[in-house]
Amino acid sequence: MLTKYTKYIIHQQWMSSALELAKVAGDAGEVPVGAVIIDSTGKLLAQGENRKERDKDPTAHAEILAIKRAATTLQNWHLNECTLYVTLEPCPMCAGAIVQARLGLLVYGVDDTKTGAIRTVINIPDSAASNHRLQVIGGVLESACREQLQAWFATRRRSVN
To answer: Among residues 3, 40, 102, 145, which is most buried (max CB within 10 A)?
Structure first.
């Protein structure tokens, strides 16, 4: 049985992987958000980074891409034994997909005060409309996730002016 401390270290390691993917997205001109999904044994199933601009697709969020890839890998849309790590609190679209996929655990880095749909602005997983009770851990590597986003947006604002 894993201790609480060991679980936290594991969460930090996977969030670090998501941060690396977010950097790839940011370097490509995308909002820097990265996501990884692991199975119940701790094996990496899928990953994704924001690709809206590159793919010209409004649904190409890191979470959506990772969920699609995990479902394909498992040949099953039920991801109830899986954990999703994402650097930014999911938006309403992604929160809906997470609930529909029946993910077992969501771990995210930083709250999204504009569109966060897990705990910050609205709470889709705990709403009456949700048919799945999602376990959530927020704030893993929060400072690093926040700093990455803030630095990216600051650079974008400077380049526009």
So the answer is: 145
